[in-house]
Amino acid sequence: MVSLTSSHLPFTLIPLDRALQRNSRKYLRTHRHKLPRTHTHARNCTAMASVYPRTLGGFTLLLLALAATITPGGGQALITPLDSPLLATKYRGFREVMFNFIGQTGNNKNKFLINLKKGKVQKQFGPEEPFFCNTTGMRSETVPTSVDRLRPGDIDIIGAIGDSLTAGNGAMATNILEVLIENKGLSWSIGGQGTWRQFLTLPNILKEYNPKLYGYPTKDGLSTRKASLFNAAEGGAMSQDIPYQARNLVKRMLSDRKVDINNHWKMITLMIGGNDFCAEICYMATPEKILQYHEKNIVSALRTFRDYLPRTFVNLAASPKVDILARFKNKPQECVSMHVIECPCLLATRFRKQRERFVKLIEDWNMLQMDIAAREEFHRKPDFAVVYQPFTMNLTFPETASGDTDFTYMSLDCFHLSQKGYALASNALWNNMLEPVGGKSMNWEREFTLFRCPSAEMPFLRTPGNS
């Protein structure tokens, strides 16, 4: 096998955090109904200037806002003026200022205690309490060459791409501004802060089988920081950002000396769609076109992993059914307001008549992903597999004894998750990974209620080849 390095990649990485493009457009769309139809560009520039502080400078803000308004609404956006190195530098500087101003929350003891008191942190286990599963024999004596013979302890490298849910936003927030902080160490699919006893995450589970697991962040941070390691997720990301994130993650792995790209087994989790459903489909002339765009994006990302990452197991997680936000019971008033801002397509009054149409698109989106994961092209190589994990397809939320939605699983905006909510997601993903293809759970249960374990009879992560 030819040894791969970052110089072998036949593409150039775009130097912009692509979520900038999405976030700018998302704000303008959400507030467009408040602006007169005349002088649209000038009004939009004024709106943007009122949101962002003077850190970026007036002229740059005008360019940013103007560029965000010239993208057509009928299809998938491509490279725009927002992708210029100048704006990338300004935006990254602004993000650093905001991150430092708000401060870290994931490693803050006071934030932890506040959330613990509110019931937003998982059950804490003592050091004497054993792990749920017997880990003996769950790392192969010789490195397997087939993905169908892969045990949990065989995973050496872990990574993830996606949006703010994968970035871990809001896990330890104690005020609405802190939801902006990416608690990457607490992310359900890629965070490695502490152990499963404090914070249940997929890496903290896998560390019980292989203590040398590598690639997970252990603290808050932006995706551009080295401490994020192989969490390449971006807040505000949409489907069209996934091919770029995949290339970015591959380049990170290829350039990291701790990664033996040819011999280490790698696990990558991909979840995307919430922002597409919440802030994109209602502004498209033909919303159904989003499915063909998404197919192109997901296939591109998966091919990147297949072609440049040997020995890789990809979890393609079902996109969250964000229409559940409309079914939350007894929402706090601040959540009602935030939901309209964060998810206008499904919750704003002006799109109510189209809600049923959009909900069907979410269902079609997930069925499309299931079809893509099963395609032969992603199962021809013996050391590569894409496995669809459907634990959010029929998503319901825990309720209190009185029948209200249990908001201890949610962050303060009731859109992102609390640490306990992320623990719930990691538990559900882990269960899916050990369930056979065709027999996987499509909902989740309260954390630690059901915790599946590999057995001597079936010690392998489930793939189409061993199901």
What does this structure look like?
Strands 1-2-3-4 form a four-stranded parallel beta sheet, sandwiched between helices. The model is unreliable at 1-8 and 10-72 (pLDDT under 50). Helix content is 34%, strand content 6%. The protein is mainly alpha-helical and 467 residues long. The chain is globular and about 60 Å long. The protein has helices at 19-31, 40-51, 58-69, 85-102, 109-117, 164-167, 202-206, 242-255, 274-279, 289-308, 333-342, 344-347, 355-373, 419-433; strands at residues 155-162, 265-271, 312-317, 384-389.
Provide a quick synopsis of the model.
The protein is mainly α. It has helices spanning 19-31, 40-51, 58-69, 85-102, 109-117, 164-167, 202-206, 242-255, 274-279, 289-308, 333-342, 344-347, 355-373, 419-433, and strands spanning 155-162, 265-271, 312-317, 384-389. The longest helix has 20 residues, at 289-308.
Terminal CA distance: 29 Å
Quaternary state of this entry equals: single chain
- What is the number of helices? 14
Query: What is the N-to-C order of secondary-structure elements (H for helix, E for strand)?
Result: HHHHHEHHHEHHEHHHEH
Beta-strand percent range = 5-15%
Rg of Cα set: 21 Å
The global form is globular
* Record field, number of beta strands: 4
Name the structural class.
mainly alpha
Low-confidence stretches: 1-8, 10-72
Largest sheet composition:
4 strands, parallel
Question: Main sheet: which strands, in order across?
Answer: 1-2-3-4
The portion of residues assigned to helices is 25-40%
The overall average pLDDT, rounded, is 86
